[in-house]
Amino acid sequence: MLGRSDTVSLENALQLLQQHLPPCSARKVTVPLDETLGRICAADIYSPEDLPPYPRSTMDGYAVKARDTFGASEKLPAYLEVSGEVSMGEFPGHGPEPGACYAIATGGLLPPGTDAVVMLEHTVTVDDSMIEVVQPVAAGMNIINAGEDVAKDGILLTAGHRIRPQDIGLLAGVGLDSITVFRRVRIGIISTGDEIIPHDQVPEPGKTRDMNSLSLAAQIKNLNARPTFYGIATDEEESLNGMILEANAANEIVLLSGSSSVGTRDLGEKVIEQMGSPGIIVHGVAVKPGKPVIIARAGDTMIFGLPGHPVSAAVAFDLFVRPAIIHLSGLADDDLPRHRTINAKLMRNLSSASGRTDFVRVLVKISKDKVPEAYPILGKSGALSTMVKAHGYIEIAEKLQGLKEGEIVEVKLFD
Amino acid sequence: MLGRSDTVSLENALQLLQQHLPPCSARKVTVPLDETLGRICAADIYSPEDLPPYPRSTMDGYAVKARDTFGASEKLPAYLEVSGEVSMGEFPGHGPEPGACYAIATGGLLPPGTDAVVMLEHTVTVDDSMIEVVQPVAAGMNIINAGEDVAKDGILLTAGHRIRPQDIGLLAGVGLDSITVFRRVRIGIISTGDEIIPHDQVPEPGKTRDMNSLSLAAQIKNLNARPTFYGIATDEEESLNGMILEANAANEIVLLSGSSSVGTRDLGEKVIEQMGSPGIIVHGVAVKPGKPVIIARAGDTMIFGLPGHPVSAAVAFDLFVRPAIIHLSGLADDDLPRHRTINAKLMRNLSSASGRTDFVRVLVKISKDKVPEAYPILGKSGALSTMVKAHGYIEIAEKLQGLKEGEIVEVKLFD
Questions:
Q1: Cys-Cys link to A239, which of A18, A104, A233, A245 (CB 3.0-4.6 A)?
Q2: What angle, 0 to 180 degrees and rounded to 10, lies between the N-to-C axes of helices A237-250 and A264-274?
Q3: What pLDDT, on a 0 to 100 scale, did the predictor assign at position B264?
Q4: ipTM of this complex prediction, to 2 decimal places
Q5: Which of B169, B221, B383 sits opposite A149 (nearest CB)?
Q6: Out of A58, A177, A388, whose CB is closest to B170?
Q7: Would you give the distance in Å from CA B28 to the centre of its chain?
Q8: What is the 8-class DSSP label of residue A40?
Q9: Are A165 and B413 within 8 A, CB to CB?
Q10: pLDDT higher than 50, residue B3
Q11: Which of B366, B365, B390 has the alpha carbon at shortest distance from B377?
Q12: From the CA of B381, how many Å to the nearest CA of chain A?
């Protein structure tokens, strides 16, 4: 049998994938704070101290006892003596007497006996040592109390959280200098096929340069995972078997690129089945492009047989390998969109077979009237240039037979 | 004067910024193909050869002369002798006689004399050497012609294009092994303020750990630019002056963090003005948070004075430094969204001063009915934890006085 016509729906394939994914690898590494961007917390992180450690001003102005300003207005200001100034970076050992205040800058420590800050804008300078306060403050206004940003032993980040710039800032603020994160997901890539040669060689007639291993490695890097290339296997069982054994031992995921096309397909299927149980879970999904994908699990390693066509391989990666990487990375699911998107007006009719989910590459232009327009790029699925010309893709759901010109479609933009 | 009440609108500030940005640095570097992900093409890239170099099959099936299949149907199939097979990776020296065909797999080279491929699914096997074709093919069907993906000397990528995984695949396919890209934008970071100590030291009372330089460096890395930290300047002119001179000489952009708060503010302003013309372009923008930002240009270096408050610094970075980095990176503007977004239902009223653009941090939850809900996180602008709890932010436009509970708002999700 050369072909394979029995396929499962995209929804079923994704369900089967989710059911068979092994739990996130428990392996953890501790990394310096400035290398944690994009990494996933391996445990809840608690604050070792109060932030700020002491009450501080959040405004430029005057540290006061709030009750000294009660009832103050433009017409009936409160007069306060400016009896001192808080120096930045110094601990004010004493504070103003009742009826007096200290000048204070944003970030300055609140002097003893004061409980609020009057903003500079709500004061009028009378002379060197006297101000009018023209608006009252309540206790706690324009200050941040000790522990108000983060309390000692309060939770900073939860396990499964992806570390963003502001998270690093907060961790720096409480003096945490290294963080325990999940190790990056490791992914082995094997290209297969007698016709494939390394991309930096000149092909003889009949041979073709390996395009997929570099583009798949880049898709993997975009997800903050670690690709390793194991080489190009010929259509001999021994060749593929040796590489896949090596890759299986050292990675959470192994990708065979090209293994689902004829010639290498049956071999790929056979070799994958030999790797361990449960073996092949899905073989063929009702999607276009990407149909001949193989999803398998051997022990704790996920194995994906991706189509040889570069466009199909890229789409199959996005549909199936991407969620597997995200799951294995330990990222907690926040149900938020993972792609940039834009809603655009479809600029031509598109037909699609019912019972199949289609992904159509589109170029997006913003019209003179500022309307985003989606132009489908039709081309052979072997033509990677169609994906290079495209800004993203639209999905035609399984139950639809197409989309009409003028409809508003959601374009998922490429990373 | 401690404070500053004259501000320009966000729109004006962005216009002034765009007008004063120097052109993208012309400096180019050549990098190996597998290191080009996310880099910006410094010149148009042309294909050195046809891709594919020869016509290939895009399906599993039989290479035929199309005219031998004309009129074929289920009821009246065309009978073709299978007189050979195309081996993958080999150049077929001869082709089938008229009325005969060769078995061919996806990716196989079309044998001489054939001009189309009949899909396996449209054939019935009669015996070892004969098939029925039940559907006709036109010349060119199920094949990709030489140069049809990319023609020799055709343009692959244009200058200013950001390199994505599929682009790397295509470049590999035509044998381009290294690419000329723009050098990454270099950004110097200087923290200022007598009260600031390095984040890995234990602060004495009155001192505070440097939070901004690490989080700004992470924001810079997220944009594929290169941060360098120059240290913490005290409130003495000599200290800041030395650092800023050094940073100016080696970077396209210099960030002073904390320089726009009182104490260091006037000093920062003075030192920035001394660096060269045109000097300060914008000082204070009607946004919340982020108001006390300074935008300056000294010669070909952009200098930004960012607020000391971590939240204000992060927002001011996103509003002003981010577009400057993108411009200087050489990225061509495609007018497409740069943030992931989600439309969500606002879960409480928000008020805002008219004449000021507000950015409100929100936590997004997906309700049981699958409705995304945006919960504003209200907290002091000094409290970085508010940004850590948030998934993104919403914008309240300058002309609005607020937003109503129940409105659908667009949330920009944090990177």
A1: A233
A2: 50
A3: 63
A4: 0.93
A5: B383
A6: A388
A7: 19
A8: B
A9: no
A10: no
A11: B390
A12: 8
Read off the pLDDT band of B359 (50, 70, 90).
Answer: very high
Residue A88 to residue B263, Cβ atoms within 8 A: yes
pLDDT at A3 over 50: no
Mean pLDDT across A31-53: 96
Buried b or exposed e, range B82-104, using 16+ CB within 10 angstroms: bebbbbbbeebeebbeeebbbbb
B281-332 pLDDT per residue, tens: 999 999 999 888 999 999 999 999 998 889 999 999 999 999 999 999 999 9
Cβ of A199 and B33 within 8 Å?
A: yes
Q: Which residue has the tokens 């449960």?
A: A278
Q: Give dist(CA A122, CA A136) in Å, integer.
A: 9
A309 CA to chain B: closest CA distance, Å? 8
Nearest chain B residue to A227, by CA: B34
Non-local (6+) Cβ contacts of A369 within 8 A are none
Q: Which domains does chain A carry?
A: 10-26+184-328 (3.40.980.10), 37-49+152-182 (3.90.105.10), 56-144 (2.170.190.11), 341-413 (2.40.340.10)
pLDDT exceeds cutoff 80 at A380: no
Strands (E), A272-414: 278-283, 287-288, 294-298, 301-306, 341-346, 350-351, 357-366, 372-376, 392-396, 402-403, 408-413
Whole-model pTM?
Answer: 0.93
Q: For tokens 């148009």, name the residue.
A: B44
Mean pLDDT confidence for B221-240: 94
* Nearest chain A residue (CA) to B150: A385
B208 in A contact zone (CB under 8 Å): yes
Which whole number is the average pLDDT over A190-214? 92
pLDDT at B5: 56
* Chain B (50-69) residues lying within 8 Å, Cβ to Cβ, of chain A: 51-54, 56, 58, 60
